[in-house]
Design a protein that fits this description.
This protein is mainly alpha-helical. It is built from 6 helices and no strands. The longest helix has 24 residues.
Length: about 130
C-alpha cells in the first residue's frame, strides 16, 4: 500500500492537475463580484466556472483535496525512504526539501479551510486604533 501511495505516476498525475488548476486560478480573476464575472463571461461559461469552483479556486474543496492528496503522496515517499535505508545513508537534502514542500502544502490547506479575508483602509496621515 505504501508503494502505491508513494508512486511517481501518482505524483506526476497530481502535480499535473495541481499545475493546471493553479494556471486556471491565475488566468481567471478570483473572488470578484458576480456582476464582474457576468460582464467577462457568457451566462453558460459563468455558470460552469461557478459550479466548478473556479471563481474561488484556491479555497475550493477539490483544490484543497488535491493539496492533501499530494501531501499524502509526499509523506508516503518520505516514509519509504526512511524504511528502506540506513540512517547514515539517508539523502538528507531530498528529505529536507520534501518536508519543506509538505509545510508549504499544509499552509495552503490551513489557509483554505480556516483563512479569512479582511481589509483595513488606512489613509495618509491617519492612525489605526491598534497601531501606536
Amino acid at each position: 500500500m505504501l508503494k502505491k501511495l508513494a508512486s511517481l505516476k501518482l505524483f506526476y498525475m497530481l502535480a499535473g492537475l495541481l499545475i493546471a488548476a493553479m494556471t486556471v486560478g491565475t488566468l481567471i480573476p478570483q473572488n470578484q463580484a458576480a456582476e464582474n464575472y457576468q460582464k467577462m463571461f457568457s451566462p453558460g461559461v459563468f455558470k460552469f466556472l461557478s459550479a466548478a469552483g473556479c471563481l474561488n479556486l484556491f479555497h475550493s474543496y477539490w483544490f484543497t483535496g488535491l493539496l492533501i492528496l499530494l501531501g499524502v503522496n509526499t509523506t508516503a515517499c518520505i516514509a519509504m525512504r526512511l524504511t528502506e535505508r540506513k540512517f547514515k545513508n539517508l539523502p538528507w537534502g531530498a528529505l529536507t526539501s520534501h518536508l519543506a514542500i509538505l509545510v508549504i502544502m499544509a499552509g495552503g490547506v490551513v489557509s483554505a479551510v480556516f483563512g479569512q479575508k479582511g481589509t483595513l483602509e488606512i489613509r495618509a496621515g491617519e492612525q489605526n486604533c491598534c497601531v501606536p
